[in-house]
Structure formats: structure tokens, C-alpha cells
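In response to reviewer comment 3 from the previous cycle, which asked for concrete evidence that the modeling workflow produces usable outputs, we include below a single protein chain processed end to end. The sequence was submitted unchanged, and the resulting C-alpha cells are shown without manual editing.
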Amino acid sequence: MASLEEIYTAKSKKLNALKEAGVDPYPAKTERDFEIGKLIQEFENLQEEKKTVTIAGRVMALRTQGAIAFVDLFDGTGKFQIFFKKGENISEKDFDLFIETADIGDFIEATGTLFVTKREEKTLEVSKWKMLTKSLRPLPEKWHGLTDMEERYRRRYLDLLMNEELRDLIVKKSQFWDVARNFMKERDFLEVETPTLEITTGGAEAKPFKTHHNDFDLDMYLRISVGELWQKRLMAGGFPKTFEIGRIYRNEGTSPEHLQEFTNLEFYWGYADYRDGMKLVKEMYLDIAQKVFGKTQFENNGHTFDLADEWQEIDYSKEIEKQTGINIETANEIEMKAKCSELKITYQGENRERLIDTLWKYCRKNISGPAFLINHPIIVAPLAKRIPGKNIAQEFQPIIAGSEVGRGYSELNDPSDQRERFEIQGRLMEAGDEEAMMPDLEFVEMLEYGMPPTCGFGFGERLFAILAGKPLRELQTFPLMRPKD
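The workflow returned the following C-alpha cells.
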């Protein structure tokens, strides 16, 4: 087998041969008049009319035998076979130039008429061709492609080219967000844009990325939510229904369910509460499942679930006690840490909030769903309204396949209560909790002017990953990679 260096040298010689023949190997324009997908759809009519057509694409297969050559072209909309026969429709000179200079991986343009082979293969017989892009490196071997995961991610363009399943998933991911966007708009939610650079991050408990604004000489942060505190300001500003789909950034670890950069949708619904939100979210998830995947039943990581089933309601504290024996309302931090050690759970941070959250994350892995987690302790819900007379929040989280796939609540609009909770978060930050929420006193000021009762909810790519049955990183178009040494 030839080495990469030998292949590169051979292809470079073909590049020079094109130039010596007066051919531009990288022209700016193609004269194609049909995408391959459209050509396939209209093939019968075009063949009957004996119409001359021009297509273009990347050479994915090349088979030569004497004075004939068969080539498979792919342009992203479909794959199509073209056929060269020396000295008939195409001149000997053009045929010879093709044989001498063309390789798998090149982009070419081909003009000709349509016919069907004896094997009933729809085909274009070439009368002229044109080099559009001469490739200098070989494509991965057709049947094995890129097998090393790091190479797949680093040369993602080749992975996408050779892996039809992955291309289909990228298309499905686009459809996923289209369906979600249309669902919101059909219910009169206004799509908005909010800042991605913030002086204080809000809307989630996560470690942010830090940057610097040179003009203002300010340290700033990339947002960790899709404008939660900004969209609430829109509620105060007279917009009753808003949503945003956008990128968010969290400077945390990578896992099958966590990335540092990903897309979320968040909506805010004035004059609604968390119970209204639960109904809407169930409708939206069913709509996404049916329109994107054509089904409601799924399997993922040992779990099976049907989004059309009745959604169980799971009490946060009771579920932890059921699975671990710990009553988080009465247990102290020492007892919680001992239980984590007993269950072989790694925990980060030793304050009460982090330990409670760690115990819950252990429990959720055993829940297939579909379910709504409710009755969160106020300590883990710094932006949610209390259930009157209780120390629990009007919050809900959809749970499927052992994972949280969203979070929503009746938004806290009592400025005094919000100020107190920000103070608690501030003390956690001072004690070294990097995921505690940054206090935002200007947000408290807005609440003092008044914000209507509001339900807010957000979800992200994790839902798509679970429905697709793939790790979250696999579904990133271009996963982040360390630079090569």
C-alpha cells in the first residue's frame, strides 16, 4: 500500500498535468443545472426529453476498464452514476485527460444525456467534463472509514462525508430545533435575542468561561443560560411570551451528557405557573418525537420509555429517601457524605446544596420515565417560587432514560425573597463553590418594579441525544479538540 507521502506526490503530479494542459484545477464557477437529488426525482421526464444535463459533485468511486469508466458522484443531495466511453460522446483527448488526472475525492462537473444500464442503474453518459477541485489527499477507505474516535472528531469533514448515518443525524438535529421553534411560534411565543456576554451570569448553577471586554475594560462571562434573567426583564417590559434558541457555555467537565458549549431553548410565559409549563412541555416533547423521529417509544442506555405514556410525578426528597435511605430534610452534611461514600458516589463540594444534588443525581439514573421531578428543596432552586407554606419549590424537571432533559418553574418574582436567595448564593461563592449563582442586584431592582407571574423552562441538546440514542459529543457538528502537539 502506498504511503500518504507517495499518494500526495502522485496527486500533485496530476495537478501539474492539469495545469500543463491549460486546465484551471480550482475554477470559481460550475455550470451545473441540476442538483443530483432533483435529477433523480425528474430522471424519467428528462430521459424521455433526451435533455442534456450538467451535474457536479465529489468522485466517490471510480472504475475503469480500457476505453470506459464508471464514476459515482455525490453532491450532498444524492449520489449518481456517470459513464465515460472513449471516442463516442466524449473525445479521446478529454477521456484520456480524465483517466490521467482524476481521482476519488476530486470534485468534477459532468455534462451529458441520461440512460439506464442493463443492470437498471440510472446513469449519465458524459460528453464533456470539467475539474472543479483537485484533491491532494486520499479519502478514508470506503468500507472502514475513520475508525479512531479522535481522528473522526479531528477530521470531522471526512467523517461526515463517509458516514451517512452521521449526516442523517445532523439533518435530524436541525429538524429537532425547527420543530421546537415552530411549536413555540404556533403558540404565539416571540423569538428574541439576549446577550451572550454578561457582567454577571444567571439562570443556572454552573462555572462560567471568563473573558475581557477591552473597550470597557471589564471582566465578563459567556452566558450559562439562554438569557433567563434577560427574558424575565422582557416579561416586566410587557412581552407575555418569549423564547430563544442559542448557544450557552459552561466551563465544566465533558461526559456523554455534558459539554462546555451547546444549544438550549428557553421560554418564558407570563401569567402561567409551573403546572401550565408541565402540560406545554409534555406536548412539545411528543411533537418533537413524532415529527423528527416518527415514533414515541425509545430505548437508551438500558432504559425503555414511551413519551405517549402517562408521565409519573416523582417527589424529589421522597425519591432520594426511597433509593438511599437518607432523609435530606433532617440529615446533616456528615451523614450525607457518609452515604455518598457508602454508595461509592464521587461528590464535588461539601456544602449541603451540592451533597443533596449529588444524591439526587445518583437516584435519577434508575428512572426510565417519562416522569416529572417535582417538589425540589428551595436550597437547590434559587430562582423558583415556593409552594405556599412549604420549603419546596414550584419546579419541574422532565426525566427520561435516567437523565434530566429540562428544567422549569414558577419564576420567583418576590424581590425580597430573591434578594435573600442571592445572598445565600453569594456566601456559597465566597466559600469556594464555583457553581453557585452570581447575585444580580439589578435583576432584584427589576423585580421591585414588578414582574407578572411567569413560568420559565429550558432544555437542550441532551434531549436530542437521548432520543437519537447517541452520546452528546457524537452529535456535535464539530466537537472541540485539543490542538495537535
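Residues 165 and 171 are 10 Å apart (CA to CA). We consider this sufficient to address the reviewer's concern, and the full set will be provided in the supplementary archive.
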